[in-house]
């Protein structure tokens, strides 16, 4: 599923400048103990943007003891994340034109040393500005949503759009209800990975049908 990265992030309410190397944590504080969670926007891998829902407000559960994580609803103990392949995207035309102009200016310098002078000038320019300014307009504007996992269930591409729409509506209100996301996937779900408190049975690849009325109570969060 091809998406516009900038538009998607704006709709999610991410106002900070986001570029390769950055990681942001959006806190979703909720009333009651062990209900608060966070959404992590991670672009530390320049090839992939990973957006993940985490228990707690720190955006990191690696320091949690199993007994601590177990206090959260099951929907926050299991994985919920999206991965966007940035390499498949397109850089803005403005950026491409800028690069072409730089190359043509360098070539026109010929034997006069114009090319070397241009490179030195570019280095000085890059060193005098922040990294965010240096890459602005030169990163992919679009990308392919390659993987979507909700509560440990991998969502088939046929259901990406309705699940993504539901996620955007939820994150804008700072409350992620994973059971609601899962219900939007309908029949397009395959078992991806059992939560830590369950043992794998060897049939994780078989189609899995989610019934919201039947299953929502066991995941500890109400739809809505």
Description of the structure:
This protein is an alpha+beta fold and 224 residues long. It is built from 9 helices and 8 strands. It has helices at residues 5-11, 66-69, 74-77, 93-108, 114-127, 131-135, 160-172, 178-184, 212-215, and strands at residues 2-4, 23-28, 37-42, 48-55, 81-85, 142-150, 153-155, 189-191. Strands 1, 2, 3, 4, 5, 6, 7 and 8 form an 8-stranded antiparallel sheet that branches. It is globular. Mean pLDDT is 76; it is low at 92-100, 122-135 and 214-224.
Describe how the helices and strands are arranged:
Blueprint: E1 2-4, H1 5-11, E2 23-28, E3 37-42, E4 48-55, H2 66-69, H3 74-77, E5 81-85, H4 93-108, H5 114-127, H6 131-135, E6 142-150, E7 153-155, H7 160-172, H8 178-184, E8 189-191, H9 212-215
Helix pairs in contact: 4-5, 7-8
Question: What key attributes describe this structure?
Answer:
33% helix, 9 helices, alpha+beta, 224 residues, disordered C terminus, globular
Sheet of most strands: 8 strands, antiparallel
Mean pLDDT: 76
Oligomer: single chain
Low-pLDDT residue spans: 92-100, 122-135, 214-224
Task: Classify the helix fraction into a percent range.
Answer: 25-40%
Estimate what percentage of residues fall within beta strands.
15-25%
In total, the number of strands is 8
Separation of the first and last Cα atoms:
26 Å
- Spatial shape: globular
How are helices and strands ordered from N to C?
EHEEEHHEHHHEEHHEH
Please give the radius of gyration in angstroms. Answer: 22 Å
């Amino acid at each position: 599923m091809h998406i516009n990265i900038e538009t998607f992030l704006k709709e999610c309410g991410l106002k900070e400048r986001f570029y390769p190397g950055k990681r942001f944590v959006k806190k979703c504080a909720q009333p009651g103990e062990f209900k608060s969670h966070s959404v992590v926007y991670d672009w530390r891998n320049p090839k992939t943007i990973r957006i993940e829902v985490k228990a707690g407000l720190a955006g990191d559960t690696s320091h949690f003891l199993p007994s601590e994580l177990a206090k959260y609803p099951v929907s926050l103990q299991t994985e919920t994340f999206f991965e966007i392949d940035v390499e498949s995207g397109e850089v803005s035309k403005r950026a491409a034109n800028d690069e072409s102009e730089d190359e043509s200016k360098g070539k026109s310098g010929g034997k006069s040393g114009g090319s070397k002078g241009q490179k030195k000038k570019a280095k000085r320019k890059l060193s005098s500005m922040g990294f965010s300014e240096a890459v602005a307009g030169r990163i992919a504007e679009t990308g392919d949503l390659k993987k979507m996992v909700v509560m440990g269930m991998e969502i088939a591409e046929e259901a990406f759009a309705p699940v993504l729409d539901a996620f955007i509506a939820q994150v804008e209100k700072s409350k992620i209800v994973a059971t609601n996301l899962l219900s939007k996937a309908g029949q397009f779900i395959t078992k991806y990975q059992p939560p830590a408190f369950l043992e794998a049975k060897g049939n994780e690849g078989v189609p899995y049908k989610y019934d919201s009325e039947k299953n929502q109570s066991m995941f500890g969060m109400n739809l809505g």
